[in-house]
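Crash report, auto-generated. Payload:
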Amino acid sequence: MRYWLMKSEPGTYSIEDLERDGVTGWEGVRNYQARNFMRDEMHLGDRVLFYHSNAKPPGIVGLAEVCREGYPDETQWDESSSYFDPKATQEKPIWWRVDVKFMKKFPEILSLDTLKQDPHFEGMLVIQRGARLSVQPVDKRHYQAVLQHFTK
DNA sequence: GCCAACGTTGGC
DNA sequence: GCCAACGTTGGC
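Recovered output after restart:
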């Protein structure tokens, strides 16, 4: 099993939205590196740290699980969508997504500020300056440190 | 709202 | 294939 962190702006799609929906398709990712992770490397049962970006404060707010592996993101063909990509065809899709299932919402946010200050999280991609990747791998030890943080 | 960091595009 | 210009992300 692998571990991931996925960013979403709570104004666009929050952990509360996922809790309500149960399952959601992670559409709209338009970055090749993130696309590659979703298309090639995320597998059923992988755990996902749900991160609120552009939030006050930003941070990890919950847990999800990959429940469908990579498949084409159909918003790329939808002209009315802001995610529409004129270069994508049905034969050759460019963008992929996965589905994730709600697991839990943490009792409080594990803020970016805390992640930066607690040495258990040293080396995590998300605390690196300029780390914009919206789908990123997480080391098992960092994932466990997140769970540990909430069982103290 | 600002702007640093980063990714993409396109002229050459 | 280089790199300047431009667009986006996302913390602050």
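Post-recovery validation: Chain A is about 20% helix and 30% strand.
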